[in-house]
Write a structure and sequence with these properties.
The complex is a heterotrimer. Chain B has helices at residues 42-49, 72-81, 97-108, 113-126, 142-155, 172-186, 199-205, 223-228, 233-244, and strands at 4-13, 16-26, 31-35, 57-62, 65-66, 82-85, 160-164, 191-195, 208-213, 216-221. By secondary structure, chain B is α/β, with parallel strands linked by helices. In chain B, α3 packs parallel to α5 and α5 (142-155) packs parallel to α6. The chains are: A mainly alpha, B alpha/beta, C mainly alpha. Chain A binds chain C through residues 1, 3, 62-63, 65-72, 74-75, 78-83, 156, 160-164, 166-167, 174, 177-178, 181, 185, 187-188, 191-192, 194-195, 198-199, 202-203, 224, and chain C through 1, 3, 69-70, 73-79, 81-82, 85-86, 88-90, 167-168, 170-171, 173-174, 180-181, 184, 188, 193-199, 201-202, 205-206, 209-210, 213.
Chain lengths: 224, 247, 229
């Protein structure tokens, strides 16, 4: 087996790929933010929603965590037009990723909320804390300490998941790798390089989230 | 030469010197105890003898053979002659009591399975656990686990038994059951090197006692000498202090 | 394409189509199962190499650490494409299913290895010291002490990963493997309603995944309980 790697044809494309990585980043941050909103509503519904709202939230989680994200996006992109909902690739992928993340984040945040004990709230009250102070100094730090590792992990998985957007024609990092592949045919070099960029991007994200967790919430997250 | 002979033994954790020239010997069938303040190097000495920590100077001779701790064969030969009981018992959580006792003699030393099992049952009977053969360690109290650990060590038929603070992780009411077990063994003519904070037990069971401080043996002598007529100020100070708190 | 989904439904489940769906569902399970079984075997070796303190094994330790950390940070799709186009460029004539099996095995090896490493780390080092003093060889310690204790700890999360991985294998459709997602694509090109087809695909994934997820939860509770009984 003789194969020599030639990165010569590929290296000029690095800036093109990096701009694509920015689109991946945009997609993951937006989907994560949307997923957090769904997750918070879902977690509160699960814990405080009464019988039907709690059930509704559980069904949502069960559906989205037991079917593939890719097929969920297929459904949005290819099936919804039949009932008159037409979305461009980027919004379709974003919607799919957001709904999917909402399922996983509901479970993560529910575990975090459930870990706050009544005694802690009582203790805060006997210390004479206001509701806002209790939220700021007791509840939020506690929740974040519990959920930070799982949330970091979820965000990393979502960053990797953005590569699915290429399948629908979004020219993010993987989409641009496909483009270069079809013009240069230096497949091994391109996918190695692209993989390397994903490694760096996710490493940077983990480090940043670990720092945020450590300073804002004194939560420990493993970087490696 | 003594059965276990230690000369000028030194060891350190990084830059911290914990053993600084230990000289000590244990004869065949002799019970020697190590006492001294925490951090004096007693447990470290047992770690070095058993090869869990490398010495950086000095010599250990076991049954006439110098132990080379960086040579696997030599270390294996030394470990074949000794057994150790740890402070935290260290039983294998995935094995029943009986299996804990028989695993090393049968699978490592390749002794006859039936004979080993018979001996294990006898030993477990002796430590009062004859009815617990098929339970798992986490179903036993600390004192019971420690007695299993002692049976496990004895089933190896060691020529010398090392005991590392075997009662310090136990509830006070469990201490005597373990000490009584060891008292019985001491009558069996097996050599023992004991690290313990139980002074009345140590005095009762030992032929000789070594007082350690700062990684050295400061004084060694009969129990009467160490407790009633210590020869150095440091020993006198230590013994005086512990007898005042009522050990 | 007709928006009248219900009239299309029977046509989606003709005898031959049912065979196709069945084969596709089995392929989906196969991809995940093979990936996880190979992942368990190789992952164990890698986890042990990463744990080893022996000087002679330092290169193996570094390499397995790099492998696990890198593979877990590259998208499945990129790994799949690397193997797919890599095989072409290097002149290997491999079936898409073979390529997908190789890629899923590599990926699950990295993830499962990390789970196993976590399991091995929960073992008390003191037991290993006891084994060492009793002259257990490193291999005997693994066989008699570490693996029996790590297995009940790692089986539930590995099973959980296997269930998650079922959904990830949907990407194998991108190299043309006939699994559930690809079956859906084929059905839509045959003119069936995409709405109906993808609803069926989602339902089939759910039927495969949900009972296994429940089983995983049960497994986790039972093993946790049995360790404390």
């Amino acid at each position: 087996m003789h194969y020599t790697l030639h990165f010569g044809q590929v290296t000029p494309e690095i800036p093109y790929l990096l701009w694509g990585a920015l689109i991946s980043l945009e997609l993951s941050v937006m989907a994560f933010a949307g997923g957090m909103v769904i997750g918070m509503v879902g977690a509160i519904m699960r814990l405080r929603g009464g019988r039907w709202l709690s059930r509704l939230a559980r069904w949502y989680v069960t559906f989205f965590t037991n079917t593939p994200q890719l097929v969920q996006i297929y459904f949005i992109f290819f099936a919804l037009p039949e009932v008159g909902i037409l979305l461009d690739p980027f919004p379709a992928v974003l919607l799919g990723m957001t709904l999917n993340a909402g399922g996983y984040l509901t479970e993560i945040l529910r575990a975090g909320l459930a870990s706050v004990h009544q005694q802690e709230l009582d203790a805060a009250e006997t210390l004479g804390m206001s509701h806002l102070q209790t939220l700021r100094y007791v509840i939020l730090p506690h929740i974040f300490k519990v959920v930070m590792p799982a949330m970091t992990n979820q965000y990393i998985l979502m960053t990797l998941g953005t590569s699915m957007a290429a399948i629908f024609g979004v020219e993010e990092l993987t989409g641009r790798a496909f483009n270069i592949n079809s013009t240069t045919f230096r497949s091994i070099e391109i996918f190695l390089l692209t993989g390397g960029i994903y490694v760096l991007v996710t490493l940077a994200a983990t480090s940043l989230l670990a720092l945020v967790g450590r300073y804002a919430f004194r939560a420990r997250v493993r970087i490696l | 030469m003594s059965f276990l002979d230690i000369h000028d033994l030194g060891a350190r954790y990084g830059s911290l010197r914990v053993l600084d020239g230990i000289d000590l010997s244990v004869e065949q069938g002799e019970v020697v105890s190590l006492i001294g303040p925490s951090g004096s190097g007693k447990s470290t000495l047992l770690k070095v003898i058993t090869g869990l920590m490398k010495p950086d100077r000095g010599r250990v001779t076991l049954a006439g053979a110098a132990v080379d701790y960086s040579n696997r064969k030599s270390l294996k030969a030394a470990r074949d002659r000794l057994a150790i009981v740890f402070q935290q018992y260290n039983l294998f959580g995935n094995m029943t009591v009986l299996r804990n006792v028989t695993v090393a003699p049968t699978t490592i030393k390749k002794r006859n399975r039936r004979q080993v099992e018979e001996k294990a049952r006898e030993l477990l009977d002796r430590v009062g656990l004859g009815d617990k053969l098929h339970v798992y360690p986490d179903q036993l109290s600390g004192g019971q686990q420690q007695r299993v650990a002692i049976a496990r060590a004895l089933c190896l038929e060691p020529e010398i038994l090392l005991l590392d603070e075997v009662t310090s992780a136990l509830d006070p009411e469990r201490v005597s059951e373990v000490l009584d077990t060891i008292r019985l063994l001491a009558k069996d003519n097996i050599a023992m090197l004991i690290v313990s904070h139980e002074m009345s037990f140590v005095r009762d069971v030992s032929h000789r006692i070594a007082f350690m401080a700062d990684g050295r043996v400061q004084e060694i002598g009969s129990p009467e000498q160490i407790f009633d007529n210590p020869q150095t100020d440091r020993t006198r100070d230590f013994v005086g202090r512990i007898s005042r708190v009522g050990h | 394409m007709s928006p009248d989904f219900l009239s299309d439904l029977p046509k989606l489940f003709t005898f031959y189509n049912i065979l196709l769906w069945g084969e596709a569902a089995l392929t989906t399970l196969l991809l995940s199962a093979v990936g996880c079984i190979i992942g368990m075997i190789v992952g164990f070796v890698l986890a042990i190499a990463r744990q080893s303190r022996r000087r002679a094994l330092i290169p193996a330790r570094i390499l397995s650490g790099l492998f696990v950390e890198i593979v877990r940070r590259v998208p499945f799709l990129i790994t799949l494409m690397l193997f797919f186009f890599g095989a072409q460029v290097l002149g290997f004539d491999l079936a898409p299913l073979t390529i997908a099996l190789i890629a899923t095995s590599v990926i699950s090896t990295a993830f499962v290895s990390e789970i196993i490493r976590g399991g091995l780390e929960t073992l008390k080092p003191a037991q290993l010291e006891a084994a060492a003093v009793m002259n257990f060889t490193p291999l005997q310690t693994l066989r008699l002490v570490s693996i029996p204790q790590a297995l009940p700890i790692v089986i539930p999360p590995i099973f959980g990963y296997f269930v998650l991985f079922i959904k990830d294998t949907a990407l194998a459709s991108q190299v043309g493997v006939l699994e559930l997602t690809q079956a859906g694509k084929i059905m839509t090109t045959k003119g069936h309603s995409a709405f109906l087809v993808y609803a069926v695909v989602l339902a089939l994934y759910f039927i495969v995944s949900y009972p296994l997820a429940r089983l995983g939860g049960y497994l986790e509770n039972r093993l946790v309980l049995s360790r404390h009984s």
